[in-house]
Specification:
heterodimer; A: 252 residues; mainly alpha; MetI-like fold; B: 251 residues; 0% strand; elongated; transport (chain A); transmembrane (chain A); MetI-like (chain A); ABC_transp_perm/SBD (chain A)
């Protein structure tokens, strides 16, 4: 109980928020890093996922896209951050953090987007092609909307992963909100550690919640109501089976 | 001559250094054992808690929503913050790291146990009930074996994640191999950082392969279906029925 009261006292002290090393500065560092690296990861992962989803790289490409998430899980973020920091990359300011963040942001995006494109209903894609859609139209008007839920799941997973990784960067000497926690550990200041943890956890939950909301609001299949009801009725077994197998593997 | 060159790789602070492996083998073994103990304890406790939770969630819809959203929230919390949040409760101790890892593993395990139980074909369940199976026997002789693939998948993900997240425990001096990485960071001791990192990945891969082997042993019927994943998925119904027959033969 004391810890919560002390942490609250730490959080409500104005001095801790302003100035160099204050919460606002750390928060903006954290958001800048996360935002920049999410964009970089998406710029790398999404085109690659679409290319692989269309059969680029043959069998090997698909295996790679599916397994890269599992492989990423086995590599400790902390170890990668430290390795990059003490390597020559570490001499270039924030470079180790940015590289590490992109490395951990790409796998969830790539895997989910790949599954979304590769498993998009072949009948629908075939029908669209038969209607004379160009490859570009096909991508933007058929495949992307069909893959949308999984692409967004990937984006959410990646964003949360990046917020977490950015907080670990503090352990390897980087900036961000994690600094408040590590500084608290270094000075045996438990209230500060707890307060920092509340901030980091709050940010992660906020990002997750905001993206979940965005996903629901921007869902392309949400607008035409009648159009949505019919396909669900007509495909009783195939699509729910698919839907449960993939997200269950990827989101966890 | 060889001793001199080996010494020089430590002195030159090279990434790969045989002399480091030789002179610090004791320290490395100790850290690896610590790492395995922390991970295994956490996963063990998580499995023990996840089972009743999943069964509870299946029985009551209300509990299900609560348990699932609570574990999802826990899973969203970054590792560093999780350990820091537990600090007032446990102080600087190994229990802190274990508790954090248990909380992470719970999310994955509960979800996968539920998915596994949901995937049990209704026909299999009804056939067992028709044969006079009681609720407990139904659970242990029919539902759990059929839920095993999903359950083991969850266990593998949870274990691999736990091995990698243990390293962050270095912040409270209980990170297994993470301790070596953290200690070597300030002095830029390259050989130690790289060796500990590689050992950590090897641990994760080994654990994953062992669990995969265990899963193969426990679920021989999933191999009998043969062919690619697509065929298994399409033939899910038939496969399920075969599995029940297998079960009755062995049970």
């Amino acid at each position: 109980m004391d810890a919560i009261i002390d942490a609250w006292a730490w959080l409500t002290t104005a001095d801790h928020w302003s100035g160099t090393g204050g919460v606002w500065q750390r928060l903006s560092e954290h958001l800048e890093l996360t935002g920049l690296c999410l964009l970089l990861s998406a710029a790398i992962a999404l085109p690659l996922a679409f290319w692989l989803g269309h059969g680029g790289g043959r069998r090997f490409g698909g295996t790679l896209a599916i397994n890269i998430s599992n492989a990423g899980r086995a590599v400790p973020t902390f170890a990668v951050l430290v390795l990059l920091t003490i390597s020559p990359v570490g001499e270039h300011g924030e470079a180790p953090t940015i590289i590490a963040l992109v490395l951990f942001g790409v796998p969830p995006l790539l895997t989910n987007a790949y599954v979304g494109v590769a498993e998009a209903d072949r009948d629908v894609v075939g029908a669209a092609r038969g209607m004379g859609m160009s490859p570009l139209q096909l991508m933007f008007r058929v495949e992307l909307p069909l893959a949308y839920p999984l692409v967004m799941t990937g984006l959410r997973t990646a964003a949360v992963q990046l917020v977490a990784t950015a907080s670990l960067a503090a352990l390897a000497g980087g900036g961000g909100l994690g600094r408040i926690i590590t500084a608290g550990f270094d000075t045996n200041n438990t209230p500060q550690v707890f307060a920092g943890a509340v901030l980091v956890a709050g940010l992660a939950l906020l990002v997750e919640g905001a993206l979940a909301l965005l996903q629901r609001l921007a869902d392309p299949r949400r607008r035409p109501r009648d159009a949505r009801r019919t396909p669900d009725d007509e495909r009783p077994a195939a699509s729910p089976g698919r839907a449960t197998t993939t997200p269950e593997m990827e989101t966890t | 001559m060889s001793a001199a060159t080996a010494q020089s790789c430590l002195a030159a602070n090279e990434w790969i250094c045989g002399e480091y492996l030789r002179s610090r083998s004791e320290e490395l073994t100790e850290a690896t054992v610590d790492h395995v103990v922390i991970t295994a304890t956490s996963i063990g406790i998580a499995v023990l808690i996840a089972f009743p939770l999943a069964l509870l969630a299946r029985r009551w819809r209300l509990a299900s929503a609560g348990i699932l959203s609570a574990t999802t929230v826990l899973y969203t919390i970054p590792t560093l913050a999780m350990y820091a949040l537990l600090l007032p409760m446990f102080g600087i101790s190994v229990s802190l790291v274990i508790c954090g890892l248990v909380l992470y593993s719970l999310t994955i395990l509960v979800r996968n146990i539920l998915t596994g139980l949901d995937s049990v074909p209704t026909e299999a369940r009804e056939a067992a009930i028709g044969l006079g199976y009681g609720r407990t026997r139904l659970l242990f002789a029919v539902e759990l074996p059929l839920a095993l693939p999903a359950l083991m998948a969850g266990l593998r993900i949870a274990t691999v994640s736990a091995v990698s997240l243990t390293t962050v425990g270095a912040i409270v001096d209980n990170g297994g191999l993470g301790n070596l990485i953290y200690a070597a960071m300030d002095s830029y001791f390259k050989a130690q950082v790289l060796t500990a990192s590689v050992l950590c990945v090897l641990l994760a891969v080994t654990a994953d392969l062992l669990l995969l082997g265990l899963q193969r042993l426990l679920t021989p019927w999933t191999r009998a279906a043969g062919g690619g994943r697509r065929r298994v998925r399409r033939a899910a119904g038939a496969e399920g029925r075969d599995a029940v027959l297998d079960n009755r033969a062995t049970a």
